[in-house]
Amino acid sequence: MNFNLSAWAIRERSLVVYLMIIAVCAGVMAFFSLGRDEDPSFVIKTMVVGAAWPGASVEDTIQQVTERLERTLQETPQLDFLRSFTTAGRTTIFVNLKGSTTAREVPDIWYHVRKSIGDMRGTLPQGVVGPFFNDEFGDTFGLIYGFTADGFSHRELRDAVENARDRLLHVPDVAKIEILGAQDERIFVEFSMQELANLGIDRSALVAALQTQNVVQPSGIIQTGNEKLSLQVTGAFGSERDIANINFAVGGRMLRLADIATVRRGFADPPQPMFRVNGEPAIGLAISMREGGDILALGRNIQQAMAGITAELPLGIEPHLVADQAVTVDGAIGEFMESLWQAVAIILAVSFIALGVRPGLIVAFAIPLTLAIVFAVMEVVDIDMQRISLGALIIALALMVDDAMTTTDATVSRLALGERKEIAAVYAFKAYAFAMLAGTLVTIAGFVPVGFAASSAGEYTFTLFAVVTIALIVSWFVAVLFVPIIGMLILKPPAAGSQKGPGFVERTYRRFLSGALTARWVTIPVTLAAFAAAIVALPLIPQQFFPSSDRPELLVDLSLPQNASIYATETAAKRLDAALTGDPDVARWSTYVGRGAIRFYLPLDVQMPNDFFAQAVVVAKDVEARERLRAKLVKLLAEEFPSVVGRVSPLELGPPVGWPVQYRVSGPDIGQVRDISLKLAEVVASAPLITEVGYEWMEPAREVRIKVDQDQARLLGLSSQAISGVLNTMISGAAVTQVRDDIYLVDVVLRATDEQRVSLDTLRNVQVPVAGGRTVPLSQFASFEYEQVYPLVWRRDRVPTLTVLADIQAGSLPASAVAELTPKIEAFTKTLPAGYHVAIGGSVEESAKSQASVAAVVPVMLLIMLTVLMIELRSFRLLFLVLSVGPLGLIGVVLALLLSGRPLGFVAILGILALLGMIIKNAVILIGQIEAERAEGKSVREAVTDASVTRFRPIMLTAVSTVLGMIPIAPTVFWGPMAFAIMGGLLVATLLTLIFLPALYLAVSPETKAPAA
Question: Do 605 and 652 contact (CB within 8 A), yes or no?
């Protein structure tokens, strides 16, 4: 091919220099305008479908509501599995899509769900409320404020919070704001059933009077010749006083409601989910950012708005910053940028030392040029600065200066031979450009499994592939367009007599290579034996999905028995608050009672609202304090909360998993599933690494069944419907109408007085009104039985499923615990009756899914590599030689991970696949050089030796730059395993490329001279 891109750049140097200036300016502007976030956005492919059937039992709700909905939902396209939990009168179903579902497909699938459920809505029993849909399950609320009040009522506090919410909704980039812990007001009308009966007042007449007076309906419009007049009938309730003053006609006389009932304003009873900040009752505002926004800009804008809001709040109402993702992101990006600049400095130092000052300056110019263009492209394709993209920049940094180093080294070599600058500057394109391009494409192919793994983990790490691909392609263009021009300006031909002979390192390498070539039948088997040993040692490396976050937060879960009231849960939460108060390691904390924490960072495993559950988010002063606090809280829960299943855990990275070790027991009979799970839990608890065992659901609860004598009830003029209505009104209360109070709707609840809202002991004596103004005790026509029922039942794909949950020792890995348990679990599974089975869940299951999604793309990666290599090499023999070196990087990977103690996680596996492309790139360039040497008429051994010595410096320089450039991220929790894998694998593979590959080439090639070119 005669066209030389470098020669064109030199001819059009003014234009190219102009493009360089534009690229730098665009990159600088893009750097400051790129969005900032903590984690890359990925779609939570889960939709929540809920429905209520007030008054139904758990069994009836499962059979008539959950089952009907799940049958329809199983027809959902791309469905992975359904999970549902059912309580008495309520069902919640999680529709989980396959990881291979693209983000673009998800909205259409959710539309299909809504439509299909809407079509079958008529088949649900009468009285079912809903179904309801939540397809925004993955919304992240990165900023949370908690408002506490001293000397103000809850209503006054809520008014202040609602006002703050209204103002914050105007802040740019705010998507939505959720209110946490607010208790809806109620107006309670409390009466004595016996007194109503004595006065001859029918409860239904009382309800009708309240509803008809408070009704909202049109009263008509009068049209005149000049104007239009609307008619408005008065009578609507404005406050509890209006309700108290309503009159009833009873026996020819008027009675005020206040004379026969107590009317008072209060809050929801039992309480709705509560929110506490630093041990104090609070109302929270959770703020989410619009998609594509800048969390740092949002944080600054919210902080400015909150300053104005705080200044106007009455003394005694105080806002507290509970969660601030902006600060977390700012710190994380600051650390990554520091690591990036450290990597730049390391690579520059290597370049200056190895190449010299002037060649080093070329690399120094190439790095910011490449980064500037990369930033500009990231801005165009909407890739923000976050954990994955910044790590990708550091990983790509050493790779993207490889081509610049190769071009510079080739130019210096040609200048040393006495060629003019114009000729020397374009030599690299003629000799190496397409080998470099092939190597670049092969390296990119190594990252293909990262970019196209059809799983949540693959989606989470996609920007690793995207950024590395952008950086490598840009680096090739920089090397062939910009570097030749910079080289002409900076490089000088060496002075006569100034050339030095081979250095000590090069002479040592030549001697060692000569020995390896002579003893090639020893070199090759020893290398292969080392590779076999690495494969054998691979299982010794602990397995991991994603590591825990290095953020200072701890999640403390409190799961009470599932029939516990929210009052019991609040008591447990207050005890935890008391233990946290004054702890020197605690910076602040927030507690969610009756629900889990709102999704304040994307990978959070969100817990659904349940009265028996509470979750605290404890922010320690630093990571060291977090670990001290974790140990204290684990001990506290074990000693002070014996009836609570507690768990203390740091935040997760990657897709949400929850408890690290999980086993699902499924089968048709709930009782049998429970018995199997109890036995399985004993097996799980026997593992040394297991510290805590819990259940997703387990405990049966008592239920009072009122058996009505239907004949006796009919004689009294009663029915089951009437009895249920009376009991519900008396005990729980029934909302009969609403008061429209400012922006609030306040339910008016009719119920019995406190002394008549019975306990279990006085249930028999409940007075039920009958015709004629009389009341009779419930025991006169009903008997009472206690039964054991399950207050909560989980199902998976329409089969009752109980998950045994287990936590592990701090510093241990779930895969290690599962590996210990596998023989026992397999033996236990063989004892199960037909129709029942045990399945692994948790991080091990998610890791297997994610690795399978990566493995599915590996054939595509290999096909791309083989195709590119075949186009470049055009020889099966050379293709075999190049590919033979690729797997040898595993020797260094295993050695590095074993010595460093780092686990082999999902990210490390991606690094190993990417490493294959890096290794093959060096092999391609070396084989190309050998073939060029042979084309000059040299013998095979002479060509192998000269080519290896010629390519020794640039190949080693690239490897050392990459290895040293990884040092800044090697200590990090997330990137450390990948960094060590690449560092060890590339270093060993590079040495083998320079020793094993020449020996193998010589072994498979006949000792002949190629004809002169």
Answer: yes
Q: Which of 914, 942, 927, 918 is nearest to 1010 (CA)?
A: 942
d(CA 969, CA 973): 9
What is the pairing mode between strands 613-620 and 690-695?
A: unpaired
User: CB of 515 within 8 A of CB of 523?
Assistant: no
SS3 of 809, please? Answer: coil
Q: Which residue has the tokens 């980064």?
A: 371
At 438 the three-state DSSP class reads: helix
Cα separation of 538 and 903, whole Å?
11
Name the DSSP letter for residue 968. Answer: G
What is the per-residue pLDDT across 589-639, written as a single tens digit (0 to 9) for each? 999 999 989 988 877 888 888 888 999 999 998 888 998 998 899 889 888
CA atoms of 351 and 960, how far apart (whole Å): 10
Q: Which residue, 418, 423, 412, is CA-closest to 490?
A: 412
What are the residues whose beta carbons fall under 8 Å from the beta carbon of 558, sequence distance 6 or more? 569, 572, 573, 576, 613, 614, 615, 616, 637, 641, 644, 645, 646
Longest dimension (CA), the chain: 128
pLDDT of residue 168: 92
Tell me the average pLDDT across 898-910.
82
Please name the residue ranges forming H helices in 273-324. 295-312
Q: In this structure, which amino acid lies at residue 30?
A: A
* Tokens of residue 900, six digits: 């460093």
pLDDT in tens, 45-86: 889 999 998 888 888 899 999 999 999 999 999 999 999 989
Which long-range CB contacts under 8 A does 117-120 form with residues at least 24 apart?
117/49, 117/69, 117/72, 117/73, 120/68, 120/69, 120/72
How many helical (H) and strand (E) elements, i.e. helices and strands, does the chain have?
34, 30
CB atoms within 10 A of CB 33: 11
How far is residue 170's CA from residue 148's CA, in Å, rounded to a whole number? 23
How far apart CA 453 and CA 861 sit, in angstroms, is 11
282 CA to centre of own chain: 27
264 forms beta bridges with 188
Dist CA 915 CA 955 (whole Å): 15
The Cα 115–Cα 95 span in angstroms is: 14
DSSP 644: S
> In whole angstroms, what is the distance from residue 20 CA to residue 4 CA?
19
- Distance CA(285)–CA(594), nearest Å, equals 17
State yes or no: cis peptide before 270, omega within 30 of 0.
yes
What does the pLDDT look like over 988-1009, one tens digit per residue? Answer: 999 889 999 999 988 887 654 4
Query: Residue 54 corresponds to which tokens in the numbers above?
Result: 């007030």
- The whole-angstrom separation of Cα 805 and Cα 901 is 27
Residue with token string 């206040």: 258
Rounded Cα distance between 863 and 500, Å, is: 44
Residue among 412, 284, 506 at smallest CA distance from 956: 506
Residue 353 and residue 349: Cα distance in Å, rounded? 6
Collapsing DSSP to helix, strand or coil, 781 comes out as coil
- Average of per-residue pLDDT across 963-992: 85
Q: Give the Å distances, CA to CA, from 356 to 344, 349, 360, 506.
A: 17, 10, 6, 16
Residue 503: band (very low, low, confident or very high) from pLDDT cuts 50, 70, 90: low
Phi, psi at residue 341, to the nearest 5°? -65, -35
C-alpha distances in Å from residue 36, one per residue of 150, 326, 471, 704 = 37, 9, 19, 56
Contact by Cβ (8 Å): 896, 963 = no
DSSP, collapsed to helix, strand or coil, labels residue 91 as strand
Q: Decide if pLDDT at 499 tops 70.
A: no
Residues whose CB is less than 8 angstroms from the CB of residue 110 and which lie 6 or more positions away in sequence, other chains included: 47, 133, 135
Q: Which of 584, 685, 571 has the alpha carbon at shortest distance from 274?
A: 571
One-letter identity of residue 62: I
Whether the Cβ atoms of residue 434 and residue 872 lie closer than 8 Å to each other: yes
pLDDT over 90 at 732, yes or no: no
